[in-house]
Write a structure and sequence with these properties.
CATH architecture: Alpha-Beta Barrel
Order of helices and strands: EHEHEEHEHHEEEHEHEHEH
Number of strands: 11
Shape: globular
Oligomer: single chain
Number of domains: 1
Length: about 280
Amino acid sequence: MQFGAYMFSTDYSMPPDDLARVLEDRGFESMWVPEHTHIPANRETPFPGGTDLPKMYWHTYDPFVALTAAAAATTNLKLGTGISLVIERDPIILAKEVASVDMISGGRFIFGIGGGWNVEEMANHGTRYRSRWRLLRERILAMKEIWTQEEAEFHGEFVNFNKIWSYPKPVQKPHPPIIMGGDGATTFDRVVEFCDGWMPIGGRASQGPSLPEKIAMLKRQAEEAGRDPASISITTFGTRPEPDLLKRLDEAGVDRVVFSLPSEEKDTVLPIIDECAKFI
């Protein structure tokens, strides 16, 4: 089992290049950053965390800029989006951003994706909440064409373009691993169809069956669809650094756990990193 860490990388927290160096020095496998382009001041959508929305949500760096800084500061550390809001980005531009970070990092990028929760935020990008998953699917499928074809072309309900040339292509072939965040009723459909992994939050399924049962369900669904279950990785996001929990996740077949770090300055973050590093 591999160990990663994530932080809302902001204009007031530990810089992403400094964080990346520290994580690599302590043996972490990966570093992850989330994404919010903005937070609408008139937001009505409840925060899933159940409290007031923390200010880090509207102070985040662009994830691809933050991860490029991290890539330049490290050699082996993998760099992931946790998560990229595909529904808020143009797929042609996003395909180039992903390929560019993968190229600059020497093939270390992990593409964590999701549909988001903030209705007003996505509406400002022209995205309708009810159709966001269909939109995400088409954008991912279109990006796969861009990454793998010399002359990419895509025609769908939401994404339409005739043949284009777009370089660089990703270093990783056919493309960086695509990891689907979330734990909804149709999440596994998306994982099996066009992703390389699943990333639930917190080390447990959010509802219904337990995480080990969910993992077994995902593997069965993959097998029924003609996919090798071993081709789908399992990452738990925001996992607590507790020995018993980590042991259970390891026994359940989790491939990677990602610890949560506060959006604070270095003096506050370092002791937490060192505590998490004890499990590596």
